[in-house]
Specification:
Elements (H helix, E strand, L loop, with lengths): L1 E3 L7 E5 L2 E9 L3 E9 L8 E4 L1 E5 L4 E8 L5 E9 L4 E5 L2 E3 L8 E3 L19 E4 L34 H6 L1 H7 L3 E4 L3 E2 L10 E5 L6 H13 L3 E6 L9 H9 L42 H17 L4 E4 L7 H14 L4 E4 L16 E2 L2 H11 L6 H13 L3 H6 L1 E3 L8 H4 L4 H13 L3 E5 L28 H15 L1 H5 L1 E4 L1 H4 L3 E7 L4 E7 L5 E2 L4 E7 L2 E2 L2 E2 L3 E7 L2
Length: about 575
């Protein structure tokens, strides 16, 4: 028997000034009913009860959830589990018990207004598009090619410059609007010696190769006019070795006022062979890591975070290598950014379990790489059964709060990964099913530029080729598929805000099926991953089909989005 609950996020977190969301995990128990009994923590009685609902199944056990509400916002609560064997288990702060009146309850001392997770209101309808600016579009009247700029269709090298610009992105906004994109994420745009710009030289200067500050201001204004948000990349973990503070440390050694901005291993000068300072990655001399224990470093980057919100009107930040910067800084960063614009989005790059950053005091969401890895482990690696994939997907969802799930970016590829169409060897069936999942799952679906045009590409730098605009002369099937799925998500409220419920019993039969439910509507997404035809209800309205269906049966390697008829 296993019973698990912790009285803090994500197992317990505020959803309003007077209500808590509670999640309880049970394993190896045949359950008849689960109740939560609760009351004000200053009272002796727990005089309210609510039956908990089974909402999913993680890798640990079955998940039960309830929302409890008290006008005071001060909670004590105990769980009661009734089994098929007639046993009653009481679960509280001291573990298993048998006395609802005397067992020690969990306590959530008081809901504080600032502790209630809040994310921007616009995230539920957002469709994201990830752009590597140097590779998206070069205006026809751009400067003549320089010795460093390569032809647009050449295979990318680590040092290649293609000449894409911010004005080029602005010129293609109508294309993105027609596709249905509402959120643009740009990899770094500030002055840097490299094409990727993750070695920032000047955080207050837009790289002249991309155009300049006025081009950013015009891009953001034009995007806003089309209903799009613009998110920039904050590379605060490390700087370029050309950054003013590091250059001064090179010149003056320990006498530099910026020596403590970095972490040097000793000595009285900077050395690069061997490297005697912390860096991004392993000994990368051009990317020295910042020391955020230094208040001056904190203050500098807090100002950067607010500056571009004011100067250009951007809509938030994606935080590079966010898990390697201390939590204290990110808490201050959130306070500063949200004070300037409460609707700004803050998304951290965390490739592993992001729970410590998603309590509502740091990030709104993360780049959901664990979601991507789960799908790849089934659709590419063959490492999971459908049932295991379903359990892992639920594990990921319930390891975060509801708001954090809504604000996280669900992705299948990025500038740091092989492109999805390459990973699946161009398999059209798998591609359609993956895109259906991406566009119907809770969170913000994030496309990598060119996904809609079927662009392929291996690991960096091959995943960073010039955008394949020539394919728009005769748009491929991939474009039509994504445009249809984006339109469906944009027009069906259940796909944006509906609670997601996986059917784990069907997953055991190799059918991945889940519902998106609101008070007004229910949509069902079914993927037939079995070798046999799967019968769907006759009384249904089909909204989208990937693959084939016949006489109400969904063919193998096919999927359908449908609405039951009452």
């Amino acid at each position: 028997m296993l019973v698990r609950h912790l009285p803090w996020a994500p197992d317990a977190y505020p959803v309003s000034p007077t209500a808590l969301s509670l999640t309880l995990t049970l394993r190896d128990l045949r359950v008849v009913a689960v109740w939560v009994h609760y009351g004000d923590r200053y009272q002796t009685r727990r005089d309210r009860s609510r039956r908990m609902v089974k909402v999913g199944r993680s890798r640990v056990g079955d998940l039960y959830q309830a929302k409890i509400e008290l006008e005071t916002g001060r909670f004590q609560y105990l769980f009661e589990v009734v089994t098929e064997a007639g046993e009653t288990i009481v679960w509280g702060a001291n573990g298993a018990g048998n006395d609802l009146g005397r067992d020690e309850p969990f306590q959530f001392a008081r809901i504080q207004q600032r502790d209630t997770p809040q994310v921007p209101s616009w995230v539920t309808g957002a469709i994201g598009y990830h752009i590597f600016p140097d590779r998206f579009f070069r205006p026809s009247d751009a400067d003549e090619p320089s010795p460093r700029r390569v032809p647009w269709d050449r295979e990318p090298k680590p040092t290649s410059f293609y000449g894409g610009t911010l004005r080029g992105i602005r010129e293609k906004l109508p294309y993105l609007a027609a596709l249905g994109i509402t959120l643009l994420y740009l990899t770094p745009i500030f002055r840097s010696p490299s094409n990727h710009r993750y070695d920032t030289e000047d955080y207050y200067t837009v790289d002249p190769r991309l155009g300049g500050e006025e081009d950013l201001i015009h891009l953001v204004a034009a995007a806003h006019a089309l209903g799009m948000k613009v998110i920039l990349d904050a590379v605060f973990n490390h700087t370029s070795n050309r950054f003013f503070a590091f250059r001064d440390a090179i010149r003056q050694g320990p006498h530099s006022p910026y020596w403590q901005w970095y972490s040097f291993a000793g000595g009285d000068r900077v050395t690069t062979d061997p490297v005697n300072y912390e860096t991004f990655g392993v000994g990368i001399p051009t990317m020295p890591k910042l020391n955020f224990a230094n208040p001056a470093v904190e203050e500098y980057f807090l100002q950067v975070g607010v500056y571009w919100l004011e100067k250009a009107g951007i809509d938030g930040w994606r935080l590079d290598v966010a898990n390697e910067v201390d939590h204290a800084f990110w808490r201050k960063f959130r306070q500063q950014v949200k004070a300037k614009n409460p609707e700004a989005l803050i998304v951290g790059e965390v490739w592993h379990d992001p729970t410590p950053w998603l309590g509502g005091d740091q990030f709104d969401g993360t780049m959901n790489y664990p979601f991507r890895q789960t799908l790849l482990d089934y659709f590419v690696g063959g490492k999971l059964s459908v049932a295991e994939m379903a359990r892992r997907l639920d594990t990921l969802r319930y390891a975060q709060t509801g708001p954090a799930n809504r604000a996280s970016w669900n992705l299948l590829g990025s500038h740091d990964t092989e492109r999805i169409i390459t990973l699946i060897d161009g398999d059209a069936e798998r591609w359609r099913l993956l895109m259906m999942l991406l566009m119907t799952w809770t969170g913000i679906p994030m496309l990598y530029y060119g996904d809609e045009l079927g662009m392929a590409g291996g690991a960096d730098p091959l995943c960073r080729a010039g955008m394949a605009w020539e394919r728009m002369v005769h748009p491929p099937e991939t474009y039509a598929v994504l445009r249809a799925l984006i339109h469906l998500r944009a027009t069906e409220p259940a796909l944006q805000t509906g609670e997601l419920r996986l059917d784990h019993d069907l997953a055991s039969a190799h059918i991945l099926q889940f519902r998106r439910e609101t008070a007004e509507d229910t949509l069902t997404v079914t993927l037939n991953l079995s070798p046999y035809a799967y019968a769907l209800p006759v009384r249904r309205t089909t909204l989208y089909v990937a693959g084939g269906s016949s006489a109400g049966a969904l063919m193998p390697a096919s999927g359908e989005i449908w609405r039951p008829l009452t």
